[in-house]
Amino acid sequence: MSNKKTKSTKKTSKTxxxxxTTKVSGKNTSVKKSPKKNVIPVLxxxxxxxxxxxxxxxxxxxxxxxxxxxxxFFDAFFKYLFGSFSYLIYIIIVxxxxxxxxxxKLKTPxxxxxxxxxxxxxxxxxxxxxxxxxxxxxNDIYNNRVSSYGxxxxxxYPVKFLIYLLSYYGSLLVIISAIITVIFLYFxxxxxxxxxxxxxxxxNAFDKNEYIEDxxxxxxxxxxxxxxxxxxxxxxxENSNEQRYNKIKDKDLVVDIREFKEDDEFYDEEIVxxxxxxxxxxxxxxxxxxxxxxxxxxxxxxxxxxxLPPVTLLNNPVKKQTITxxxxxxxxxxxQSTFNNFGIEVKIVKAxxxxxxxxxxxxxxxxxxxxxxxxxxxxxxLNLAAKDVRIEAPIPGKSLIGIEIPNTVNELVTMKxxxxxxxxxxxxxxxxxxxxxGESIFTRIDKTPHLLxxxxxxxxxxxxxxxxxxxxxxxxxxDKVKLIMIDPKMVELSIYDGIxxxxxxxxxxxxKAADVLHKVVLEMENRYREFxxxxxxxxxxxxKIAAKDPDYKELPYIVVIIDELADLMMVSSKEVxxxxxxxAQKARAAGIHMIIATQRPSVDVITGVIKTNIPSxxxxxxxxxxxxxxxxxxxxxxxxLGKGDMLYLSADSSKPVRVQGAFLSDEEVEKVVDxxxxxxxxxxxxxxxxxxxxxxxxxxxxxxxxxLYKEVLLFIAKTQKASASLLQRRFKIGYxxxxxxxxxxxxxxxxxxxxxxxxxxxxxxxxxxxxxx
Length: 773
Known about the structure:
alpha/beta, Threonyl-tRNA Synthetase, Chain A, domain 2, Rossmann fold, FtsK/SpoIIIE/SftA
């Protein structure tokens, strides 16, 4: 019987345990369901902020107006602690919840608290200095005499002790110095830079004092002349012109010249080499020149120890003043007299001296047609003995017309002085140069989203491409941005071969380049399939998910750089144009961007399909306005000066901006490339490596190539005709050999297939033969 009882008790205990476990599991299931209702923390946080605000306002109102027992209590409490300083405490109590309601975080609250305490000490010290110096006793505290003291009980005894140690004036000096130091710490002000800037402004103030007085007098006289000429009815225009021309001879016109970059701290080598706050955010691992040799090779797909190239690898800017105020005033007098000779009434408002040009901003009088001023560009160039004059009518955002005249001596803009001013944390923000006013100009490739660069030989196109590539290398590790370089000329981009940022080696064969572009299209399609799987719309959203979910791999940006589009279009225009069009239309969200450069801005190279999908463009100096319209859809590039002078048209702007491109020497490029190569080896992606198209087809491999192949290639480029009978007559060969050469040319993509009775199409341009000759 006892055994049966024990068995029954065991069974009941087991069932009870099972019941308990089911209850626990039931509780767990209920807990799992509870997060669906867990929306309270976000709302309660906002509710707490609002409640904090309401309570703060009520306490301040009750205390200030001393309403009832609670109001008198809070008023006595704050005055007991802070004295007269309590009114400022009331303002802070109300302002703090307002600041938090605006969803802002308070910057370094500890420093703010210290600053308030120091200000309280200053209140107390000033009050003690203006009253008796008797020390407060316990009876005074009990009788609430403390509330009548400037800083209250909180600061009275510390300040008294400080006066005992340092005297009154010593304490005043220490407290004020501490307040200034705390303010410097809060706003992160550099003492040395502040002293240098104050010194610079003081010196400029003395130099400009006399000039400002003359300027004000000239403004008044010019205004009087304009009012007299256009508001009175009996004035003769010819007498007016003669009067203004005589005035030009006697006195200088009103000209406001921008200050030259003469700050010592900018050109000081030590300060130029110091990384800015932006660069510190980009990479805290910037190193000095002594650490240039890095022996450690980064392991595959691991760039934790990779160090970005330091800015010290670039050359320092050269301190140089290209033009004086007297030169600008003299040009303005000639410009004013030119308009007067043609009977056009204008007023020169301002002159801005840029690196390569000076822009005179003129204000036409009412009734003057803008077209009359624009048509005088050749006459202005003749009178000023200038190479070219560009007129911007009107200046965007101003009711003024800009006349851009070349400087006698150009100022060299180095990449270093432009790059150190980049405050954008985007990995694809690249330096371009400086505008007319001397401000640094940058562009974000991910916002362009594709860029077309065109210009004649020697205008600065290749330097601009090198500047963009170097900006990417200076800001990004190899796992963040990948590059694909296509260089049919085989001389411009070969220096970058072997850097770890490349997905494949620099492609120089035009046929292989078409294959690489097709593989870029396939990569784009693969990325969009991954985006659909992750249910995101672009690469930024996908990388956010990849950072949290190990099932997804973070994707890098891909920048495709084509240095000479014309060579590709001559060999395989159809395939290249189709691939470029697809990439330009769809690749932005996939993180794939293109930079296309060419020195032949003709319509057969920059086709309508390519132009439509590449809104951002850079035009360097070209030979004619037709080429300028091909690049920018408007004239203007034919008046550029060359040597980096460019017009930059962004995707979000309707008018181009004139920029002096940053100069980057070959030695600087070599330094950056060597630094990058010293840390990591190139790891090419086999999916991006071009296949051996020619050898697979058997058309132009080393074994099967006919000795007359190259000669025939040049012949059909010249004549724009291709047939077996033509080759038989011209080269005196048999039909079989001629037909075999024609088949090779068709397989290599130089000529089209047979189309009935029509002649074969020749895809080579005549310039192809001229280049070889």
